[in-house]
Fold this sequence. Notes:
This protein is an alpha/beta fold. Helices cover 45% and strands 15% of the residues. It has helices at residues 13-26, 43-52, 75-88, 107-120, 123-139, 153-158, 185-207, 229-242, 259-268, 275-278, 285-294, and strands spanning 3-8, 29-34, 56-60, 94-98, 143-148, 169-175, 208-213, 246-250. Strands 1-2-3-4-5-6-7-8 form an 8-stranded parallel β-barrel, surrounded by 6 helices. The relative contact order is 0.15.
Amino acid sequence: MVNFYFWSELLKLKFLEKSLTDLAEYGFGINLAVRPDLFNRVGTIVKQCNDLDVDLVFWPLLSYNNGYWVNAWNLSLQKRWIQKLMEQYPSVHTYTLDLEAPLNFKGIKGKIKTRKLAEIKHWRKVRQEMNELIDNMHNSGKKIISTNYPTNPSGRRAQGTPRPTNADYYSYMVYTSLFGIFGNDISKDNIVAYTGQKILNTHGPKQGIIDLGLTSGGVLPKFLPVTTKERVVSEVSICKYLGFKRIHIFALDEIRKDIRSWMEELKNTRPKAPPLDENPSKLGLLFRIFRTFLLNESFDIID
């Protein structure tokens, strides 16, 4: 059995409330972005999820000026924010730590800031602080998902986003919509299959999670391409073939009105072998590039 979760980043809470009954009927969970401006407003969502038995995961984020995602630059602020959430909403048992470079570090200045930060605060120190944060959350009875892009660990460490070693689950954002017109269906299916197998080889089906999409650009620039239901269904069928037990879809924001159709097709999708398993000569140029340059390092979190 596969457990499905939708991300919800920018969907207004009043619209999310209307979707919870549908999520409950199909057994889907939700990874809910919780920023400081929503602190006193998510209580109704927490209560409804409890009442409807919808598995709610908090996705703590900061403001744009404070770097938004979890990273070396804002880790001390994130610790305080997460502690505040745990105290206010004790019934939420799972949190996602989204490890990405500061959203406000843009352009050449942003690259300079990132490089200087890495010199001042070594990635091993950052990882130690992340592990300590997670230990504290474990002591409060929380489960932790560590999530980031599946690019090479050396690049993530340089950005100040090393993966912690003590999370309960590890998810990877394999968003084929980002390839846009540059990759055909064969390449996209193979990238999902190749990356998915690396995730499972590293973490196993109990800890490994794959994130598919994008169905919405979220807070990122609106020119980012999004994908279709047919593409996501194809990728889900491959993930079922590989043996994933948990799949995340980004995001509920733009597909809310068609959510029942999405859930119906996702749940009923049958496992499908990827092109590289059916015919090893069918790889696709974009897949070859990704395998050679972006996915050529191990996902192993122990360095």
